């Protein structure tokens, strides 16, 4: 009898701990009651799969009009049907448009299309991204990870800023990651100095997300103290979500910190710690719908948390690296804050 009670007690304890861990890793849930009826469309880059598609469904259930920005229009059309089926609302409107963050020309064409076809836009969610992508340069001569995760959202946001401001209250949400906390200043400077230099895939991903945070923080400050305070721009971290983003991570040829037997063990941990796309999109949804006006904040588990603050070398790293990016993209007709020209970069190696 004693053995039976020990077995029962052990089972209850293990079950409780496992359940607690699962609940902890699942993160927060958006409880905002706001709907999107009567507001402009929401653009979701990467909206044809995983977190982007789950977010589209959640917004569709709240009365939103959706624009799925996809590299593959066939996959976008398929996702449109799946979203319509999940939402089951006859008045739902979903548009599929081509967008490839690896091409500045594609971004320009997409922005032009949006301005011509949609009088107003309520929100832009920069959700598309890559992780552990083989190192290679785009036609614009930037690393694929760097351009997809950082420069692409940077350029698209700037192209659409004036159009977004046509709505009294609009939002931009840049999807980031806790990987930004692992970046060291030397890693950041090395990647900015040479896009083709051999680097860790994990570092490349972390750098792209850190710079996305800096961009959001500095542009958010500009919007907050501008005449038009209706544009809210923030960062949302979906947490560890099992998606196709990790499709390259299981490739043995790309593994830096793993091997053939360690990866299956990692998979066991991921089964416990991962979120589903529907769970992963909750913080993004919260950032879009939360009634409080915030600029340049970092949301995680449906609440504001402080991002990584670096570096001691720079008084205001967000402004420094945001300004540098403007100078690297001088050939593009981007919106630039009025004070951007007052602080010229002192490190000419940043620009190619």
How is this structure best described in words?
- 44% of the residues lie in helices and 11% in strands.
- It is of the alpha/beta class and 352 residues long.
- The radius of gyration is 21 Å and the shape is globular.
Can you summarize this structure?
The protein is α/β, with parallel strands linked by helices.
Largest sheet: 8 strands, mixed
**Based on DSSP secondary structure assignment, what is the total number of beta strands?**
8
CA-atom Rg in angstroms: 21 Å
Reading side by side through the largest sheet, how are the strands ordered? 3-2-1-4-5-6-7-8
| Silhouette | globular
**Arithmetic mean pLDDT:** 82
Could you state the order of secondary-structure elements as H and E? HEHEHEHEHEHHEHHHEEH
